[in-house]
Amino acid sequence: MLHPVGPLPAVVYWRRRLLVLGCAVGVLGGGGWLGVAVATGSPDEDTVLTAAGDESVPAPALDQVVPSLAAVQLPTAEPAEEPQDAERQDDEPADEEPPAEALPVDGGPCSNDMIGVEVRPTPASSPVGSKPTFDLVVTNVSQVSCVRALDKGLQEIVMVDASGTRVWGSNDCFPETTTDPRTLQPGESVVFPVLWGGLSSTPGCTAERVPPAPGDYRLRGRLDTATSPDAAFTLT
Question: 47, 63, 97, 150: which has the fewest C-beta neighbours closer than 10 Å?
Fold first, then answer.
């Protein structure tokens, strides 16, 4: 058997034997696999093993894995609030008009707005060392008569130089005290002449008094808290 006998070469007989042996092995292997499959049964396509490998669970359906579009709730934009400006404007009270200023009463006190104060140098220029007169003028500029205190202690004229430095004041060395309430008619002016001695002074008259140098100066008058505009005065 190991040494084939025939008219053909021995190689041919060995090839035929190997082919027959391979077919037999294939038939036996296929029959065995079929027998095992019939005995155990094939797994269902929709069944998957759990992590433990002992129990099987059905595979989730596609509609369980991917939720339906109808079940997905999309965020909706909140409705914009309507402007409340108009309602707020309606609720806010309208701006009240300021109360009208009370008209001055005839015969009442003269406020600073009802009088004018002015300084008039006579003359407007004087030589150094002279004694010019400065007039303090108080005028009722309102439409009604009024009462104002014109006391000497409330009157004052001050001289300053071009830089604003105080040079002289009418109440520095010779202050006077009087009581002089007056009723001023509309448009009425009262003149109070003040004589200047031609020398400088300080409040309280403590500094040495000397003639100011030639140049341009300004005069400022007041009646209590009512003040005048500056008046030009020149020493030559």
Answer: 97
